[in-house]
Design a protein that fits this description.
Order of helices and strands: HHHEHHEEHH
Number of helices: 7
CATH topology of the largest domain: Arc Repressor Mutant, subunit A
Strand content: 5-15%
Largest sheet: 3 strands, antiparallel
CATH superfamily of the largest domain: Winged helix-like DNA-binding domain superfamily/Winged helix DNA-binding domain
Number of strands: 3
Length: 139
Amino acid sequence: MSETSVAISDMSMSAGPCSAGTAAPNFTCGLDATLKVIAGKWKPLILYFLLQGPNRYGALKRAIRDVSDKVLIQQLKELEADGIVLRTDYKEVPPRVDYALTPLGQSLAQALEPLCNWGTENMAEMQKLFAERDSWRRR
């Protein structure tokens, strides 16, 4: 057995919030469950903007630059189906719909806040690294 496989084996047996021993049958660990809910390029940003309060579709579309209507609608529907987002249709003309986080969604969005803070604190360094990576690709 290689050192890498021993280290991975040791990690999977360690106790902690993501320990494999507490996993549900469909998930490897708690992190796996979380990643399945937030999988999708735009879902973490949707959660971030909804953490600030309920938003209408148009406000989310403007806040999340570069997302297509099709993908934003699809990801909102998935988050709603997963019990993370609540869609309220006011049955008005013109149509008015807004999106808000459920209590489960609030707890998930709050768990993502440290990642946002890390990104903010390291943004300049990440920009340099991505620029360097792009220059490698052009060679």
